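Sat 14:20. Reprocessing the chain from the morning session after the first attempt stalled halfway. Input below, unchanged.
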Amino acid sequence: LGEQGRVPVLLLKLNDPVPKRKPVIVFLHSSYKCKEWLRPLLEAYASRGYICVAIDSRYHGERASSETTYIDALKSAWRNGDTMPFIFDTVWDLIKLGDHLSEREDVDPCRIGITGESLGGMHAWFAAFVDTRYSVIVPIIGVQGFRWAIDNNKWQARANSIKPLFEEARIDLGKSEIDTEVVEKVWEKIAPGLDSQFDAPHSLRLIAPRPLLLLNG
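Finished this time. Tokens:
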């Protein structure tokens, strides 16, 4: 599992005089944030009777040793293909989180919802289509058509969120600027299938018939 094998978890709930199984909300943070950033939202949901959970995604929060840990991991994935730090490795953590939550005596395993913002929205989306235990899914500004963005030259916003990675790829590919070819090659290396079989038009349908709300703006 390596240094990223331990998953830091923040779990909030009310203390009930009579123990009972409760629904769960898993809330996932955006790029360069951490689970504690979500604490006000977790407290609000917990006050309404939910068990609320957040984790640090790979190379964030307690799993980061410096401010550049996440970008360094992305660059390593581009150069060496040794990890999948953008989406897939955190999705694996969310599958293991599903294992833990389903085994807890205070959790209703049929009512585990998942949401997240931006990068966290992508993690929620991908976790939900591979793990049916996530019964309600609400990605926030996290779902997009990666192939559509490439084909229509609309990839800039997502690429700019991790721009140092794309700058490194640009240099490696001998380009004077980040262009569609650079973006396509980066996605192929750090998240294979992101703009093909795992893209939104193909993967979102796998969530059905579970409730799904996509929030973009």
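The first helix runs from residue 39 to 46.
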